[in-house]
Amino acid sequence: MANVLIDENTMGSIANSIRGKTGGSERLKPRNMPDAIDSIPTGGGGSNADPDLPVRFFSYDGKLLYSYTVEELVQLGSFPPVPEVPGLVSDGWNWDFEDLTLGNGYIGAADIGPLYVTDDGATRIYIKLPDVSCTPIVEVDVLSNAEVALDWGDQSEIQILNTSNEWRKHTYAAPGEYVISLKRVNEEGYFYFEGDFGEGSGLVSERKSYFNENYAYHSIVRKIELGSNVAFGRYAFSTLTRLRYVTMGKIMTTIPQGAFERCNSLEMLTIPKGVTSLGKEACLECYGLKTLSLPPTLEEIKGAACQRCYNLENLVLPHHNLQTIEYRAFDTCYLVKELHFPESVEAVPEYCCSCMRGLRIVSFPGAKSIERGAFNGCYTLPNISIPAGVESIATQAFTSVPVETIYVFATTPPVLSESGALGDTGYDLVIYVPHGCLEAYQTAQYWSNYAGKMVEMPE
């Protein structure tokens, strides 16, 4: 290699840059610089955050703030600070530093989001009113002797709500942007809002019977900041089609059925720590959702929770407590490339990952069954590893999956429900079976159809 001359000023600049990255102050000799550069952490914040690192921290609006390897975070000894947001008070991240530990080791990956409550405890609804003919209705349940002040944000008289299923209608003097505020004003109780499967969100609506009739009102909501002494129920934010941002603190243990259904403009959603259940259809058809941050306390993901979230890219399943994932949970999430089920999940349920067309890596180490249509239509999944505990593979489990390699680790061939359970396999398919089990697989019902494609693993 030819000699390269570098002047003293350049060497000094390189040394200063290294010290700036490492935080060191020692004098650096040229021969020590390569090792010093290697010691610079690859994680970081802002524009330096690497989206390919396994532990990622996001802002409430979905921007990637920091990213690290698990080892780097353990070495740091704490999480980075939650960003300050005007009008909000941090309630921490939805993971704690201690959650990096899993069993006798560490987690593999996590997408972590911030939690906030409002600085005055009020719940704020940001709206953009197109014209004065739009006269929104706010409906809440006020419970356990609470009194709630409703401020329409236009200097009109503040109204007091104190009964169940109470609603108020308001006429604004001019179109524009307003902040509707709901705040408990006494020391008792709380307030609560929900919606309806047919009507959509009841938070801001016209109280019509069908959500398409409420569309003009649902579409005025742009942002929601949840305060204290508040809870929400089924379909609470459903069909708020232009809702872009939601912030909340550790206020609930369940995300109810349909809570964020069809919030088409929502790009980031942080589920608070303490939540154990992501309800049925909770994020159904959130077409714009890119990042869903799930907490380590999560125990179950109900049916169709994230179905048809076409733009969902960032989805990491927590492995601490998650035991149950139900049918069609991630069906038609086109952009998720990698998904790892916890060992505690014993079934890949019906159509759970169906039509995840970008999925290239998947693992389900604790599965005992792969149910009907589980990976149907995963067009880009090249390899499948079927762990030793799998006992059955149902019909259409891998239909329309042009898989190239299947590794089967069960010494007893899993029961195939039909000849096509392994999908539309190509001519170059290779099925690797455990050492000493080749004959068992080649003669097992329906497995025998693939006998010529089987190879015995080395001992």
End-to-end CA span: 46 Å
- Provide the β-strand percentage band: 25-35%
Number of helices: 5
Low-pLDDT runs? 1-5
Rounded to an integer, what's the Rg over CA atoms? 27 Å
Spatial strand arrangement across the major sheet? 12-11-14-9-19-21
**What summary fits the major beta sheet?**
6 strands, mixed
Q: Mean of the pLDDT scores?
A: 90
- Strand pairing plus helix content: what structural class? mainly beta
Number of strands: 38
Description:
The protein is mainly β. β37 (430-433), α5 and β38 (454-456) form a beta-alpha-beta unit. Helices cover 8% and strands 28% of the residues.
Give the helix/strand layout.
Blueprint: H1 8-22, H2 33-38, E1 44-45, E2 55-58, E3 64-68, H3 70-76, E4 88-93, E5 101-102, E6 105-106, E7 110-112, E8 114-118, E9 123-129, E10 137-143, E11 148-151, E12 159-161, E13 166-169, E14 176-184, E15 190-193, E16 195-196, E17 200-201, E18 204-205, H4 215-218, E19 221-225, E20 230-232, E21 245-247, E22 254-255, E23 268-270, E24 277-278, E25 291-293, E26 300-301, E27 314-315, E28 324-325, E29 338-340, E30 347-348, E31 361-363, E32 369-370, E33 383-386, E34 392-393, E35 405-408, E36 415-416, E37 430-433, H5 438-443, E38 454-456
Parallel strand pairs: 2-7, 15-20, 19-21, 22-24, 23-25, 24-26, 25-27, 26-28, 29-31, 30-32, 32-34, 33-35, 34-36, 35-37, 37-38
Antiparallel strand pairs: 1-3, 2-3, 4-8, 5-6, 9-14, 9-19, 10-13, 10-15, 10-18, 11-12, 11-14, 16-17
